[in-house]
Design a protein that fits this description.
Shape of chain B: globular
Largest sheet of chain A: 5 strands, parallel
Strand content of chain B: 25-35%
Largest sheet of chain B: 4 strands, antiparallel
Low-confidence stretches of chain A: 832-840
CATH topology of chain B: Alpha-Beta Plaits
Number of helices of chain A: 50
Mean pLDDT of chain B: 81
Number of strands of chain A: 7
Number of strands of chain B: 4
CATH architecture of chain B: 2-Layer Sandwich
Low-confidence stretches of chain B: 1-8, 83-88
Mean pLDDT of chain A: 88
Distance between the termini of chain A: 59 Å
Radius of gyration of chain B: 14 Å
Largest interface: A-B, 27 and 17 residues
CATH superfamily of one domain in chain A: P-loop containing nucleotide triphosphate hydrolases
CATH class of chain B: Alpha Beta
Radius of gyration of chain A: 34 Å
Helix content of chain B: 10-25%
Shape of chain A: globular
Structural class of chain A: mainly alpha
Oligomer: heterodimer
Strand order of the largest sheet of chain B: 2-3-1-4
Strand content of chain A: under 5%
């Protein structure tokens, strides 16, 4: 960070100085002191009511530390907002937020809740009570930032207290906070100056000698509105004829600011007046910037004089380097400027933009260039700022700038166009991608046919970022491929990725790695598993060379999934283990994605029949914390836990978890080859709820007549299971139909070398023959299944089929085929872990306190009632409850009580 | 996209609005309020009238009212078949 941008950062975190001479509003400060223990102090009133001043005065005498964040429009970028918020908190505790910042800057998208949970944990390390002030919260108008604030508020550590000043009530659950006594509110009615305060302000602060009548008239005309009183005082300074002024002011209907600002401006020297109007376009003022905008010298002195004269100028740092106008005053000045010199406004913005550019503050330079509607200039600035903005993950900001540009500006700017495509695709947007790609593609021939020097001389073509020019063809092809992926077009994904590999030099690991990965995903989606594995593994290796470790770890999930579909469980396990080792090698054993690996290993352990080990890995995944997981993990975790519950016979529990998994499903770009809805239908089959299972098939359009493709294979095998179950209860279902269906499915699976699917289909074939009473024929496919499954040590694949499979395996044992393996499977049927799955499973004993809480969870008492009963805070109760749930392996109160009863704990 | 009942206007079409605020606002605010015309009325209020392209634009105008600390009295669509004054 250069000096200028760090000094700008400091202005956002600076607590404005408390004025030595100000009305000390003890009645309000008392209310703030008394309300501090609550979660949120909300100071909500229109502009000019002295909200910020009040909070500043309160903090000046408040014995606890406070962090301050002055918000502005650019804080509507979630990453930027949180970065500043952490910077503010670091004023209290320098180490806070370091881990959170790492997550914010990483290239994988993390659900904001996970990031915030890490932040909240880090905040919990702050020992003393403290306040965090968000000044001017009304400037936040994006849902993503507000959502983050709501999450923080709902999980606020007890030592943290939030203070907000705002011109309008924020979109927070205020009613709920009120009911729970977690909210202290100060509103316009509280903030208005009382007659006594007005008198003190005019007399002692502004040094005016007024009659009681005049004071009363002013108070009544302004209705205690502080900005109005302050402007009135400024207008009266140095007047001899105060009473006539007061009478004239009180006796008319004009908007107070119109009347008073005019009065004030009229009484200023021409130079000051013009300074005020011209600098009104600036959000922040510093001497040199004001000089650049006004074209005059002496800005620094002018600002100091304005501050001394109580002119609505707020210092933004200790050294009086930066100031700002009170927003209300700035708005009135800007309106005067607009009305009096409309032609000047753009010129002033332009000058500000140039100054900011020269001082290496690109965001501000861009903002003013856009305000000047100087789009040529703005696009040049944006193109140069784009790489750094991308790298700091402020894609929302980048996208905001690009959207403000008119379409035609992109025609001659291929690099800018390609930045736009990248920003859109990384935000999951496809609208507008095609047009920008075409803008970039128009130049590919020109670039290919000319030397770089000639290209940049070309009058039409505008390139700011010369370094990127030679990579343009590669980027265009890569984004074409990514765009095709987003649209589900497999053929185009592959052919454009191929193009990247032809164009990009061997050492461009980023481009080549990304292209290989996209190809891998396309092959996977189309069921070409070995090709998918090779491409994807190669892509990951390249990305690792490009330094992108998180992506490399993340890609492992895809590689393991592919191996499992191939029926290569041992290889899948090795993939997970190698990746965990990679995380350790990078001395970051809690790296993003490690929680996902634990879940993957848990599922393999489950398949091996070791349900306790599986539960253990799920538990570890959870203990590692949300910051070590990818967005898919919450849903994957539940799917694996549901399969464990299913194996243990808790089908209702499994369905409940699958329902949650469905809601939490995140696909990213991975093909959804095992839809959760189908997994639910399988559980319904085991419960005998065939009508509901059939309804699933109907709803998802899965039919026995479909052409097969890999994407729907899991669904088709599910339908085969439903039909098989129907056969057992109804003579309407034709067995021949199922037999034929399974045969077709097997052919497709074998053609794609998807051994995992083949084993399952062979098992179903055996069960169909068994149903017809033909055991010898049933043993034929079963023997094939056993041959394929034995080297990989599948267990649950057979055991989950229950009694019919037990009987078939007993027949098989008599015949002596695959004898060792069959004996192992038969033993697995008899394992205590299967018949009485739930006797063991408490990962750690409950503490005495947790047992107390558990007993009360078994009653009808509500959360707050339990907290009262135990004389603990709700937060403490939540911690206990969470620990209990984790130890019991459940995630709600009902399940906890149920499980505790099973374990004899209640 | 459906029609608003009886109004004969489609959603997202420009509409005339009247925004009434307390106090007399100077004419110089016209540009600030996106060119709305400003009428100072005898009852001490000001009426801003003009075409508003859509709801987002309307909310933007109201935000400007907020930012000046003005007291908002009413916001009414004008020229609408279902606007109260036209029903008489």
């Amino acid at each position: 960070m250069n000096f200028m941008s760090s000094s700008i950062l400091a202005t956002k975190l600076y607590i404005p100085p408390s004025r030595v001479r100000a009305v000390h509003r003890s009645r309000l400060i008392k209310r703030l002191n008394e309300g501090f223990h609550r979660r949120l102090i909300l100071v909500s009133a229109p502009a000019g009511f002295g909200k910020t001043t009040l909070v500043v005065d309160w903090l000046a005498s408040f014995p606890r530390p406070a962090a301050w964040l002055s918000l502005d429009e650019s804080d509507n970028d979630q990453v930027r907002f949180l970065t500043y918020l952490i910077a503010a908190l670091q004023g209290i505790e320098p180490s806070v937020g370091t881990e959170t910042l790492q997550i914010l800057q990483s290239f994988q998208s993390t659900p904001i809740e996970s990031t915030l949970t890490v932040l909240l944990n880090e905040i919990s390390a702050i020992r003393d009570d403290f306040a965090l002030v968000l000044d001017d919260y009304h400037l936040i108008d994006t849902e993503s930032v507000n959502h983050a604030v709501i999450f923080l508020l709902e999980h606020l550590p007890p030592q943290m207290h939030l203070v907000m000043t705002t011109r309008e009530d924020p979109n927070l659950p205020l009613a709920r906070l009120r009911v729970r006594d977690q909210l202290t509110e100060l509103r316009a009615a509280d903030l208005r100056f009382t007659p006594a305060e007005a008198a003190e302000f005019l007399g002692q602060v502004m040094n005016l000698d007024l009659s009681a009548e005049d004071v009363a008239a002013l108070e009544s005309r302004t209705e205690g509105w502080i900005a109005g009183l302050q402007l009135a005082a400024l207008s009266m300074r140095g007047r001899d004829d105060i009473s006539p002024f007061v009478q004239a002011f009180a006796g008319n209907n004009r908007y107070i600011l119109d009347y008073l600002v005019e009065e004030v401006l009229q009484r200023q020297p021409a130079q000051t007046r013009s300074f005020l109007l011209q600098t009104a376009i600036l959000d922040k003022l510093t001497g040199a910037l004001c000089d650049a905008v006004t074209g005059q010298a002496g800005g620094e002195k002018q600002l100091a004089a304005l501050e001394r004269g109580n002119f609505f100028v707020v210092p933004l740092d200790e050294k009086r380097r930066w100031y700002r106008y009170h927003h209300l005053f700035a708005d009135v000045l800007a309106a005067h400027l607009l009305a009096e010199q409309p032609g000047q406004v753009k010129t002033l913005h332009d000058r500000a933009s140039v100054w900011y550019e020269q001082n290496h503050l690109p965001s501000e330079a861009i903002r003013h260039a856009l305000a000047a509607e100087h789009f040529e200039r703005a696009s040049g600035l944006i193109e140069r700022a784009a790489p750094a903005t991308r790298q700091s993950r402020q894609e929302a900001t980048l996208l905001g700038w690009l959207k403000a540009l008119p379409e035609e500006i992109f025609r001659n700017r291929p690099i800018l166009s390609i930045e736009y495509v990248g920003a859109l695709l990384s935000s999951g947007l496809v609208d507008g991608v095609e047009a920008r790609l075409r803008d970039a593609e128009r130049w590919l021939d020109v670039i290919a046919g000319t030397s770089t020097a000639n290209v940049s001389d070309s009058a039409e073509l505008v390139i700011m970022n010369q370094d990127e020019l030679h990579r343009l063809p590669g980027w265009v092809a890569l984004y074409r491929s990514g765009y095709a992926t987003a649209l589900g077009n497999i053929a185009d994904t592959v052919s454009y990725a191929q193009q990247v590999l032809e164009i990009a030099p061997e050492d461009d690991h980023l481009l080549r790695g990304a292209a290989k990965s996209l190809m891998g995903l396309a092959f996977w989606t189309s069921g070409q598993l070995e090709a998918a594995y090779q491409s994807y593994a190669d892509g990951m290796a390249q990305l690792q060379l490009a330094g992108n470790i998180t992506d490399t770890v993340g890609g492992v999930l895809a590689l393991a999934d592919i191996r499992i579909a191939q029926g290569r469980l041992r290889d899948a396990m090795r993939v997970y283990e190698r990746s965990l080792q990679l995380a350790v090698d990078y001395s970051s054993p809690t790296m993003r994605g490690t929680a996902d690996m634990q879940v993957g290993i848990a599922d393999l352990q489950r398949e091996y029949g070791d349900l306790n080990a599986a539960r253990h890995y799920l538990q570890r995944s959870k203990e590692q914390g949300e910051h070590t997981e990818f967005p898919q993990n919450p849903y994957r975790w539940r799917v694996v836990m549901a399969r464990i519950l299913e194996a243990e016979g808790d089908l209702d529990g499994a369905l409940e978890l699958l329902g949650e998994a469905e809601r939490l499903y995140v696909g990213d770009f991975y093909p959804n080859v095992r839809p959760v809805a189908a997994a639910k239908a399988r559980v319904l089959v085991r419960q005998g709820r065939l009508d509901e299972a059939l309804a699933w098939a109907h709803e998802h359009g899965v039919s026995i007549e479909d052409e097969f493709n890999y994407l729907h294979e899991f669904e088709h095998i599910t339908l085969a299971r439903i039909l098989l179950a129907r056969c057992q209860v109804s003579s309407e279902q034709s067995v021949r139909e199922i037999t034929f269906y399974l045969k077709r499915l097997l052919q497709a699976a074998e053609a794609g070398e998807r051994t995992g699917s083949s084993i399952e289909i062979l098992i179903l074939q055996a069960l169909v023959h068994q149903l017809q009473g033909d055991i010898p024929t049933a043993l034929v496919p079963l023997e094939r299944a056993l041959k394929l499954a034995a080297p990989e040590a599948y267990v649950r694949m057979f055991v989950d089929e229950g009694a019919p499979m037990l009987s078939l395996l007993e027949h098989m044992a008599k015949r002596g085929g695959e004898s060792d393996y069959v004996q192992q499977l038969l033993a697995a049927f008899g394992k205590p872990g299967v018949s009485q799955p739930r006797k063991q499973g408490l990962s750690e004993p409950l503490s005495d306190r947790e047992q107390d809480v558990l007993r009360l969870l078994g009653t009808d008492l509500s959360g707050p009632e339990i907290a009262r009963e135990l004389v603990v805070s709700l937060n403490t109760l939540r911690t206990h409850t969470k620990n209990i749930y984790d130890k019991l392996g459940v995630n709600n109160r009902r399940a906890a009580v149920h499980r505790a009863e099973e374990l004899g704990l209640l | 996209m459906g029609e608003i009942s009886g109004a004969g206007k489609r959603r997202d079409e420009p509409e005339r609005y009247g925004i009434r605020i307390k106090g007399h606002l100077d004419d110089r605010w016209a540009d600030w309020f996106e060119g709305m015309s400003i009428t100072q009325e005898n009852d001490g209020t000001t009426l801003l009238t003009g075409m508003v392209v859509d709801q987002a634009a309307l909310l933007g105008l109201l935000r400007r009212v907020r930012d000046l600390g003005l007291s908002l009295i009413s916001v009414i669509p004008l020229d609408r078949a279902d606007a109260p004054e036209d029903n008489a």
